[in-house]
Design brief:
The protein starts with 18 loop residues before the first helix and ends with a helix. The protein is mainly alpha-helical. The protein has 27 helices and no strands.
Length: 664
Amino acid sequence: MAQSEFNLDHEISWFVLPSYWAKIIVGLISCMCFANSYDGDFVFDDSEAIINNKDLRAETPLGDLWHHDFWGGKLSSNTSHKSYRPLTVLTFRINYLFAGGFHPVGFHVINIILHCAISVLMVDVFSILLGGLQYSSKGRRLNLAPKASLLAASLFAVHPVHTECVAGIVGRADLLCALFFLLSFLGYCKALRENKEGNHFSILWVLASVLLGAIALLCKEQGITVLGLNAVFDALVINKLNIVELIQKVLRKDKSLENVGLFKKGLLFRITLLLSGGATMLCLRWRIMGTGPPAFTEVDNPASFADSLFVRAINYNYYYSLNAWLLLCPWWLCFDWSMGCIPLIKSVSDWRIIALAALWFCLIALICQALCSQDSHKRRILTLGLGFLIIPFLPASNLFFRVGFVVAERVIYLPSIGYCMLLTYGFSLLSKQTKKKKMLAATVLGILLINVLRCVIRSNQWRSEEQLFRSALSVCPLNAKVHYNVGKNLADKGNQTAAIKYYREAVRLNPKYVHAMNNLGNILKERNELQEAEGLLSLAVQIQPDFAAAWMNLGIVQNSLRRFEEAEQSYWTAIKHRKKYPDCYYNLGRLESEALFLKAIKANPNAASYHGNLAVLYHRWGNLDLAKKHYEVSLKLDPAAPGTKENYSLLKRKLEQLQKKGDA
């Protein structure tokens, strides 16, 4: 199926290399950008999706993967986020099996390899998008834009916004989705190759493309959008459909409508296959999901909870402009953009309106050129560029359903294909207008080198949670979750004083941040600041009554304050909200045993064994002062009490060690 296509290479001052050399170079630079993340830790969401995910372990039946979400929870649960990505979880499980446990190196290496493979595939994809689909007499696909495809693939390979997908192990969902997305597109292109019998397309390859799209969907939800892009490519490139001309003829009820190409070359039949495949996938996906869409909270996506349609619309559009800015200038990157990082726009007087106005001005200008230009080649390139930029982004746009984030760098991995395509086309136009082509080429090369440097720096920040969380403080200082994660990281390392500072800031930024209140309350409890700890935990359960961990911790504090009945009630409330809660049952058992010992001592205060056993209980709990008191009473009543003398010696030794540490 030969097509005479416009060749951007005539206008671009860039390197001309054989296809295999171009792919080698793109593969190498993509590896160079992210290679330093290979020995990174499990960070951020990796803990929930990998370390705490029972679906990775051998004892979990493989069949459970098809009924669980990405995080290992049951899809039928009302608390599930409905992220159905069983094939991605399967690759994690294989990683875990071959590594013999949770060793992050193998996980990171696979991510880097996947990005390299995708970048190499982009050489072929961009050669089709920018140079057109044409085959030789021997049936080999021709690369009519070797320079343009190399440049666009290089821009894609080194884009810093991809760091989250590559250096963050959870980003494998986006990488696998992109891989099968591209294979589906290339398979569809192969379906459009004219065979020896003169047939214009292969039904088998169309069906294979739909199957690859389904596999992409099982890796991540964005995968289904490849079917829409295949349809757009078929209509605009293969059938050279002029959308404006088609609309005009429909409105005029022109009798020549059948001549515009809609019914020629099997286009309608192929689009029917794509639509049928997409509808089947959506129906099965909805059926598997079970209980309807996921339930997110206001802190996840505040704009979607706004009462005013105007506020929702204007903030959604502002989010789009931020995504566009991350593609244009990927310097300010953050692992999380929620919880106050981006305050809501509530009035047209907000200066940020300029950003979304600029976005729509550019988009409308590009759309007008894509639809109305007399140059068919320009129409094709701009339409495909906009298609790859917009269509894969639609599942994250809040247009069809609420999403659980404000801005997420990972979701623009696929849309960046359209951005790189448009940028390459813009470069070709500049190259055509200027006489200083070498200077322009040097500028583009400089941009590539800067992006490589930024990728190296950013992927290094993703190597540990401490670096990742601290890097976000300068980007999103208003994000309560950033301060919470910095505090949690410090607390895990034993630096409670510094952790308290960040937890307090998280609560100040978000007064309803129950997890920050819970963690801060725990630290204050350990520091014996019981009154403030109780206040924080009480507020946490008031805000979120089903927060089982906060109820249990409140019970521990109440127990320390000697309010045993209240403590018991808190423990039972925690168990009510989390049936399988062994820690809470343990604390409840401790509470009842203490109460019984105290009751026994009250009835017979001169029984040495009662005091001795209660001292052991306090000793185990870490209530060393009370343990010391009852050991001494027991020994006073019975100096030969079995075991009490040895336990008392151990306690005194521990108290001396603690005193020495305090003096140091």
